[in-house]
Amino acid sequence: MATRGRSSFCRSLPELELLLLVILVLLNGTVLSLEAASSSEIHTGEGNNTSKKPFPVIGIMYDDVSVPFEISLWVLLASLMKLGFHLIPRLSNVVPESCLLISVGLLVGGILKLARDEVPPVLSDRIFFLCLLPPIILDAGYFLPIRPFVENIGTILMFAVVGTLWNAFFVGGLIYGVCQLAQDKYSEINLGNIGILPCLLFGSIISAVDPVAVLAVFEEIHINELLHILVFGESLLNDAVTVVLYHLFEEFMESGLVSAVDAILGLVSFLIVALGGVLVGAFYGILAAFTSRFTSHTRVIEPLFVFLYSYMAYLSAEVFHLSGIMSLIACGAVMRPYVEANISHKSHTTIKYFLKMWSSVSETLIFIFLGVATVDGEHHWDWIFITATLILCLVARVIGVVGLTFVINNFRIVKLTTKDQFIIAYGGLRGAIAFSLGFLLHTDHKKIFLTAIITVIFFTVFVQGMTIKPLVELLAVKKKHEAKRSINEEIHTRFLDHLLTGIEDICGHYGHHHWKNKLNRFNKKYVKKILIAGDRCKEPQLIAFYHKLEMKHAIRMVESGGGSKLNSSFPSTVSMQNIQPKIQSPPSARPAERALPQLTKGREEEIRQILRTNLQRTRQRLQSYNRHTLVVDPDEEGFDDLILKKRRMMELDWKIKEMTNYLTVPHAQGSPTMSRTRMASDSQAYVKPGAKGVPSIQIDLASPQSPDSVRLLDEVGHDQGLTMSLPSSSSRAYKTGGKDDDRDHQKLLRCLSDPGPSADEDEDEPIPT
Amino acid sequence: MLMINVFVSSVSTEQIKNLHMRFQQLCGNEKTLRKEHLENIPTLADNPIKTEIIKAFFDKRNQHNNELGSYEEIGFEEFLMVMSHFRPPSIKTSAEEKAAMRKRKVRFLFNMHDTDGDGKITLEEYRKVGIVEGLLSESESIGQEVARAIADAAMLEVASTNVPNMVREVTKITLALFLHFACPQILKDLEMESRMYVRFLDMNTANLRCGK
């Protein structure tokens, strides 16, 4: 750790951490010994129980809290490590986090071994499979981008199933051959004793691409969505294959002989494991969606349902030896659209944050434990076996990917290029799942297998993990572009869907558009009615999406307090009818009088459009799928966000000033009303209602002349701060004229004041498909 | 018939035969296809942009003869011509062929939106076709003002991607603009040439369903 703290600025922190670490470890050790000492004291004390013991002022009872205490220590360590890494800027760019964490694990393991001569068995398979793995998978499954996943499902399945099978048999078979060939050379352990079945078992363990490792590495390199979803999807779906192969070979090893019937049963078992897992997950997902329909009165525990049902899905699948990972993914993916339509915005945020937090901590812990367990385990280093394994794994992966791509490209429209293939092959990282499965082995050759597995894991994570980023740069692989989810994109996606479905109908060909359409309509007609509360099920998705965009934008605008000259640019749907660059009106015109617009319709359109243009430019909603970036939440009180917004506002000001200079009728400059309006500062806006002679832009949020402005800012109660609520049905009537100007003023004020704690209204969170 | 040759060269006669069979199926006893034939297809009835799709088949602009207006009835060549807009690029198509293909497809889409045939899509047309009809199926409804708001926002998005001096003119979208926005600025992932295709070219007779 001393080598890391090169920059003098940050030198103190890692050293501090090291100190803290050592202290914690030693404390642990001393506490334990103290406890042992005190317990012996008590025993001797009880021997002569005639003498009265003084009241123990201070006692140490470590045993009762030992387990939670240690767990907390580990989690704390993991989090501090994470903190530390990101404080050292250059390091995190070069070395992926997973490598650093494994190194830390190695270090900690080493320290513990020195201090206490034994290492706690932290990476027991139960802890791993039951506690550490589910959060990561749930996080991945819940936020899985469904559209690319489903579009590429054929390719993903091919890679996951056929690719993994190929890898398993290739590695298993050839390593057996190598062992047989090498059996004379070594006397330590007779490699020739390793039968074909253990070899195949070993092959099946080591061939699976690991989702944790893939996630950890890939999310730092930001490659394009297609490659990301291919490798990641493969790593998720190959769990079914791994589970089946593992159990299959284990059974065979017990029973000793394999018959053709067993092979067929194996195939059947694969289908059961995969489909069963998905069904279990879907079942729990639907339950969760249904439950969330009724939670409108108990918003606080909504996230709990999501987590619990998902975890139950995982556990239930594990009970029946089905694929827990697939069940978890299915549960998350199925429940998400319905749950998100039902729960409140805050619950949604909570779920998002908790999932990210847990998965992040889990990932960190897994890598650290991997390091610790490496130090602990009994290893048997056999050069031939290990190098052979390594080479075979790499070769198998490359051949598998190339071969499969060759076949798959015949069926794909967007073909996979050589570069893509390289990245897919290179991204086949192994990780902790392989290690845990290896831990569960009962063969005689467990040691050598474990060592080989660890070596492969280390190699893939360190070497491949570190070099993949420069390679991606070198090969100029398409990176992920930040897709601003624009309205046009949404419109055109849907338009195309309908168009292509129509063409398919005309051709009489029931292609996948046709079935997708059918599924959508079934969904809309029946499923949504059951699973989504209230009348929200009827709201067309695009409307919801649009409202969401508008609202986020509106919140952001209001939160940043508005620029000094931004009185005129309120949420885009405000009608500009009543701006007063009216030449004819004398400056002494009563502001209460609603001035009719003198702008021509075309000019007004232009103004509105220009303002909106500029407003729209400030919308930056990142919708790219990245695990650890949380989208800037307008509800957050980020100070630097605020500054960013301020800066944007100033840009906006400047632009609007330019535009208005062009646009505003030049003779309006003479009107003191207008100029005062333009100069109006924030404080001016906080005007008592009804004050006369104040230059104010009367924003009429809806007026008869502008039937096309939508009231998005709805006032709920007069005395609260600005609360946003969406019109729950798209046909909400806008108020026609006849509003008091007083209320206008009030609205103006409220628009500029802080939103305050919004009432816990229901909000829609549509999921763009 | 030059265009047909282009189309033909990339598909097999088998597939053209299938399409021909389908054409005859749709026509019934007659030799040419009319609008009523297409409207009688039951599965098409639920499609919100049914009228536009049907119109597209009879639209002269999609036949690449630079005429305007629409046919009353079309023969197999015209049918094939419209269908050719939907073929996918193969691995052998070069970059310029892909660009040309994209242009054709985008042009097709443009023609679908531009209902009055003046070469520009106005806000009204966009709103009507793109949003009101394009997005919502029959069970959904959309308020006038919301539709207009969405159309506004969409148009402005288009405008905002351009140089500021275009902003003033965006009450209509010309073909140039439409083409421009079909490329990476707004429709980022929608690579038209890859998205807009139908796998009818893979179908065989077994898949042909009776459309009536």
- Shape call of chain B: globular
Question: Helicity of chain A, in percent?
Answer: 55-70%
Helical content of chain B stands at: 40-55%
Distance, first to last CA of chain A? 46 Å
| Mean of pLDDT of chain A | 70
Order of helices and strands of chain B: HHEHHEHHEHHHEHH
Radius of gyration of chain A, Cα only, in angstroms?
A: 32 Å
Subcellular location (chain B): Cell projection, Lamellipodium; Cell projection, Ruffle membrane; Cytoplasm; Membrane
GO molecular function (chain B): calcium ion binding; protein kinase inhibitor activity
Domain EF-hand (chain B): 101-136
Protein name (chain B): Calcineurin B homologous protein 3
Task: State the gist of this model.
Chain B: InterPro entries: CHP3, EF-hand-dom_pair, EF_Hand_1_Ca_BS, EF_hand_dom. Chain B: It comes from Xiphophorus couchianus. The complex is a heterodimer of chains A (769) and B (212). Chain A is mainly α and 769 residues long.
Describe the model.
The complex is a heterodimer of chains A (769) and B (212). Chain A is an all-alpha fold and 769 residues long. Chain A has 26 helices and no strands. The model of chain A is unreliable at 1-11, 30-49, 563-598, 618-626, 632-639 and 663-769 (pLDDT under 50). Chain B has 2 domains: 1-88 and 198-211, EF-hand (Recoverin, domain 1), CATH 1.10.238; 93-196, Recoverin, domain 1, CATH 1.10.238.10. Chain B has a two-stranded antiparallel ribbon. A two-stranded antiparallel sheet of chain B has the order 3-4. In chain B, helix 4 (50-58) crosses helix 6 (95-113) and helix 7 (123-135) packs across helix 8. Chain B is globular, with a radius of gyration of 18 Å. Mean pLDDT of chain B is 67; it is low at 163-169, 184-190 and 202-212. Chain B has 212 residues and is mostly helical. Chain B is 52% helix and 5% strand. Chains A and B meet through helix 19, helix 20, helix 21 and helix 22 of A and helix 2, helix 4, helix 7 and helix 8 of B. Chain B: It is a lipid-anchor. Chain B: InterPro entries: CHP3 (IPR052490), EF-hand-dom_pair (IPR011992), EF_Hand_1_Ca_BS (IPR018247), EF_hand_dom (IPR002048). Chain B: Belongs to the calcineurin regulatory subunit family. CHP subfamily.
